[in-house]
Amino acid sequence: MAKYFIILSLLLAFCTATSHRLRRHAWHTLTPAQNSSYISAELCLMHTPSKLSLPGTTSRYEELQAVHQLEMMQWFGGDGRPQDGCITNGPFVNFTNHLGPAYAYTSHCVTRRFNETCSAQTAQVFVDECVAKGDWLGAWTCIEGKPHTGGHGGVGGLMLDAVVSPRDPLFYLHHTWLDKIWADWQVRDLPKRLSEMGGDNVQDEGNLPLPFPPRPDSIPKSTGADGDPGNVTTLEHVLNMYGNGPNRTIGEVMDIWDGVLRYEYVEPETGGY
Ligand SMILES: [Cu+2]
């Protein structure tokens, strides 16, 4: 929550000239008059023309959004261009993919089609809802639902290709964030949640949030379900790395802190995800 108040204070500072030191207060402690004055400050920003010549901006309000967008673009590039979705800036602008779409093999750029409606599903409120679930099946389906699909749909383009979405470098940022949500759910009930597993190991292709085309005969069948006694995922389930590293069972990687992975998350100073 703290980060929102920093942004709120910045918004107010743009339209309120002050000579004394500003003090930051939580929204719910303000008077109705102060709440309305804050809203007026936002409207002021929205109605004040831009002056920084940042791409796409028409108001001071959008210039603040542009700071965030440009920070991301600096590292990963921005949205795709209208005609074909290819990104036009950032370090991956000249990167050519060779896998996909789906199970095909073609040469193509990194494509994106940002969608703020989808991105909204990654909001903190939905993450909190998932982390509060009392069992693995509840947490997994919750994370899969909004935070997971919200990230894929929010970026769009390659990220919406259910078979080869990792073609966009943003995929890895998104999925390591999902890993953290899982770990945050685990720490709420340790050590019990280091061994909680379940759910189908072969997804129902007719009931997926993203479309999976049928697997052609030329593609080897997945061996991901090795080790499971049936269509229920267990700790003995083998994660096939196809030579990228040693195959592991799910049981071996459940404990990120003391298992074979051995890592921990460092919380940002402002908290949150
Ligand atoms: Cu994903």
From TrEMBL:
Q: Which organism is it from?
A: Ophiobolus disseminans
The protein depicted here goes by the name: Di-copper centre-containing protein
Entries under PROSITE patterns matching the protein = TYROSINASE_2 (PS00498)
Keyword Transmembrane on this protein?
no
One Pfam family from the record = Tyrosinase
PANTHER family found in the cross-reference section: TYROSINASE FAMILY MEMBER, TYROSINASE-LIKE PROTEIN TYR-1-RELATED
One GO molecular-function entry = metal ion binding
> Which InterPro entries does the entry link to?
Di-copper_centre_dom_sf (IPR008922), Tyrosinase/Hemocyanin (IPR050316), Tyrosinase_Cu-bd (IPR002227)
